[in-house]
Amino acid sequence: MSRKAFIAGNWKMNMTAESGEKLIKELAPLVKNASCDVALCVPAILIPAMTKAAQGTNIKIGAENVHWAKSGAYTGEISTDMLKEYGVEYVIIGHSERRQYFGETDESVNKRTLAALAAGLTPIVCVGELLEERENGSTEKVLDKQLTVGLNGIEDITKVVIAYEPVWAIGTGKTATDEQAQETIAYIRKKIGELFCPKCAEKVVIQYGGSMNAGNCKGLMAQPDIDGGLIGGASLKLDFATIVNYDK
User: How many CA atoms lie within 13 A of 77 on its CB side?
Assistant: First the structure.
């Protein structure tokens, strides 16, 4: 079954309105003929400016997080209505850094995901194992829990994008091979088939989020179950265009 590839950048806590506008202006002509969907997920404070900068291009603007409540006493959080007001379409949920530094759990990932779907946003739900978990052979066990709890109660799984982040391959000096990435993402698709239905699983876009860059994107994107990438550092540079144009 054909799935349209999706390359999304995650700026994390980087860029300013000025530098972000400059990058989008330079990126736009380089990615305008991309065969894949393209998005940049940016810090909340930059969303209005980046939405304006990307207007008239094929670059969609996404957010890096969203709260599950419509409004309320949640200092520092951002709601679905706030995102939709600026035309945001995508939102990253459960990124490994949110889990590691800010106490994100599978349960809170689930609540945020359900809220995003209810608002018509496309959640990019992140899953993945730590180095210790990879080395002690518990990768599948970890992914099973993240997927079972994080995706609980979803009516249409095809409206969710999954991003597999092998946390052990980020900043550790260890690198996931194309085959390792494919093997694990194939397992994720199989598990989604068990939780929902095999036909649904074949429609779900699953990205690779383990340091995809201009040098390794072609090999990763050639794998049958890898449908795109969630790009960190490389999305802050014009290298992002090379990744988006992986098939050129």
Answer: 17
Please name the residues in contact with 34: beta carbons below 8 A apart, sequence gap of 6 or more.
7, 58, 244, 245
**Comparing C-alpha atoms, which of 10, 66, 56, 50 is closest to residue 29?**
56
Query: From the candidates 64, 104, 129, 165, which is the catalytic residue?
Result: 165
For the chain, 248 residues long, give each residue's pLDDT as a single digit of tens.
589 999 999 999 999 999 999 999 999 999 999 999 999 999 999 999 999 999 999 999 999 999 999 999 999 999 999 999 999 999 999 999 999 999 999 999 999 999 999 999 999 999 999 989 999 999 999 999 999 999 999 999 999 999 999 988 876 667 689 999 999 999 999 999 999 999 999 999 999 998 899 999 999 999 999 999 999 999 999 999 999 999 99
| Segment holding 8, helix H or strand E | strand 6-10
Q: Residue 148 is encoded by which pair of tokens?
A: 């079972």
By the 8 A CB rule, do 243 and 204 touch? no
CB 6 within 8 A of CB 209: no
Full DSSP string of 85-140: TTT--EEEES-HHHHHHH---HHHHHHHHHHHHHTT-EEEEEE---HHHHHTT-HH
Which among 95, 97, 104, 129 is annotated as catalytic? 95
Establish whether 140 is a catalytic residue: no
Q: What pTM, to 2 d.p., does this model score?
A: 0.97
8 dihedral zone (left: phi>0; alpha: psi -120 to 50; beta): beta
**CA dist., res. 190 & res. 162, Å (int):** 13
User: Which tokens belong to 73?
Assistant: 């006493």
Active site annotation includes 95: yes
